[in-house]
Amino acid sequence: MVTRLQQVVKGAALNFRRTPAEISAAAARLTAREKQVHDKVAAQAQPTFANTIAPLARLENASGGEAALISFLQNVSTDKQVRDASSEAEKALALSRMTSQMRSDVYGSVKKVLDDTQGLKELAPEDRALAESMARQYRRSGLGLSADQRAKLEHTRKRLIELGIEFSRNTNEADGVELFTRAELAGLPDSYFCERATETVDGVEKFVVTTKYPDLVPVMQMAKSEATR
Question: What is the model's pTM?
Fold first, then answer.
């Protein structure tokens, strides 16, 4: 008999039981699916909303959630091997997305849909807005630049991805702490302080905040004090 827990573990919910090998396999599956969809779009002889814009939008919708779940484990897992695998998976997925966003052949198919003014008029307003937004995203990714400029941009974006993931990994693995009074952490919900370690400094109770994701991100997002953030 399959229990509710087993169903959750096998589904798309956040799965803390994923092994490093499963994380790597999931990332490989997502990147392969992404390439398959983009290859098919690029090969369209007569690009339309149905065979070009819709498949790209469905891909983003279907893959985004699973990619986020895979990447999130680097911030919360107690297993270093899982954290490392999650970090590497995020890097692979980010580089794959960047490569896909800079494919001139895919952009060519998208642009043909936009250039078909009559076909564009026949689309529902939401679909037309989606097509225009998608074309704009490709232009912002550098598809309107020369080949040399695109190569420079691709190098810069790749380096930014690598630095961002390295920074995230370093903050998660660091042992640094900061001490704050409850007043200095105003804006954080009561749940943030439940079972949180404290230290007494000069007779004043202060809460321990580490550089790890579960500690750092809520403070950066919700603390009212600019000095604290």
Answer: 0.73
